[in-house]
Amino acid sequence: MQKHALIILSGLILGISAVLLVFMGNPGNYGVCIACMLRDVAGALGLHQAQIVQYLRPEIIGLSLGATLAALITKEFRATGGSSPIIRFSLGFAGMLGMLVFLGCPVRTVLRLAGGDFNAGIGLIGLIIGIIIGTMFLRRGLSLGRAAKMSPANGYVFPLFILSLLIAALIIPSFFFASKTGPGSMHAPLFLSIGAGLVIGIMAQRSRLCMAGGIRDAIFFKDYHLMYGFLAVFVAALVGNLLVGSFKLGFIGQPLAHTDGLWNFLGMLLAGLTAILLGGCPLRQLVAASEGNTDAVVTVLGLLAGAAFAHNFGWAASAKGVPQAGQVAVVLGLIFTLGMGFALCKFKVGGEVKNEKTCGCQGTFLS
C-alpha cells in the first residue's frame, strides 16, 4: 500500500477541497469539475454568451500553475507535441459536448455520487462503457502518433497565458465577463480557490491522477494504482458531504443535474471514449498542458471551443433536461469518435494487417 500513498493522498486532497469549495460558495456537487470550470472560463473570455455561466474560475488558474511549478521543480517540464493536433482538438470538442449534456466531467461524476446523486451512477456506467470501447481500440493498436521534442519556448506558452489571466484578474477584473446570477455567480473566495487549485495541481502532477486513465489501466493492464486515487476522492467527498449536511440521496432535486437517464448515459459514454483516444480526462489534459505538452494544450483548446459552441447554439443540458440539439450533437459526436477509433487503429482482415502506419497505443497515453 505504501507505493499507492501519493495517489491516495492526492485523491483525499481533491475530495476534501471539493467539499470545502462548495461549502464556501461553489455550486452544489460542483467542487472541482474541470469541464464545468473550463466552460465558465470560456464564458469569462467572451467565447460564449450564456450569462449564467461566465466566471474566470481561479481553481483552473491555480491548478495549472501548481502543475507547472511541480514539473519545473522536479525537472519534468518538457516541451513536446505534434501528434495529430487537429484530431486532438476535434476529440476535445466532442468530449466537452458529452460532458455538458451529462453536466460534469469524470471528476464531477465521482463528486456527484459522493453527494448522493443517483443520476451520476447512470453517467458512471456510460463512462465505463465508453472507456471499455476505447480500450478495445487500444488493443487493436490505436494511436494518435508519437509526440516529438520541441523547443522549450513552445512548452511555456500555455503556462504564461494562464499566468497572464491571473495578473489580469487581479489588476483589472472588469476585463472579464462575470455572471450576476446562476452557477457562474456562485464561487468560493478568490484566494481560497487559487490555493486549493495550486495544491490540487501539484498533487495531480506528481501522482498522475486521472479517473479515465485509472479505469483504462484496470482493464488494459490489470493495474489498479490510479483507481485508488478516485476511490479516495469518493470517500473524502462522501464523508465531507455527510459532515457539512450536503448529502442528498436520490434522483430528484440534485444540484446542477437532470434526470434524463439515456442522455446522462450517452453523454458520459462519449466523454469516456474521447478520454481514452486522447490519453486522459480533462484533469489530466490540463495538467499535461501545464507540463509543456502542446498536444494537451490543443486538447484543452478543443474543450474550450466545445463549451463555447454548446452554449452559443443551445446544445448544453440544464436542470430542465437535454435540448434536442444537444441530443443530436452527442449522437454526431459518437459517430465521429467511433469513426476516428476505427481509422486510427490496426486491424486484421483475412489475416492481413491494415493501417500499418499507426505506431502503437503508447503514443496515445499521457503518462
Question: What are the low-pLDDT stretches, counting only 5+ consecutive residues below 50?
Answer: 348-353, 355-364
Order of helices and strands: HHHEHHHEHHHHHHHHEE
Mean pLDDT: 93
Structural class: mainly alpha
N- to C-terminal separation? Answer: 21 Å
Gross morphology: globular
* Number of alpha- plus pi-helical segments: 14
Number of domains: 1
Overall strand count: 4
From the alpha-carbon coordinates, what is the Rg to the nearest angstrom? Answer: 19 Å
Sheet of most strands: 2 strands, antiparallel
Major sheet strand order: 1-2
Roughly how much helix do the residues carry, as a percent range?
Answer: 55-70%
Approximate strand percentage: under 5%
Notes on the protein architecture:
Strand 3 and strand 4 (352-354) form a beta hairpin. 62% of the residues lie in helices and 3% in strands. It has a two-stranded antiparallel ribbon. Strands 3-4 form a two-stranded antiparallel ribbon. It has one domain (2-364). The longest helix is centred in the middle third of the chain and has 22 residues, at 118-139. By secondary structure, the protein is mostly helical. The chain has helices spanning 5-23, 34-44, 58-73, 85-102, 106-114, 118-139, 152-171, 190-207, 211-220, 225-244, 261-278, 282-290, 294-312, 324-343; strands spanning 80-81, 148-149, 347-349, 352-354.
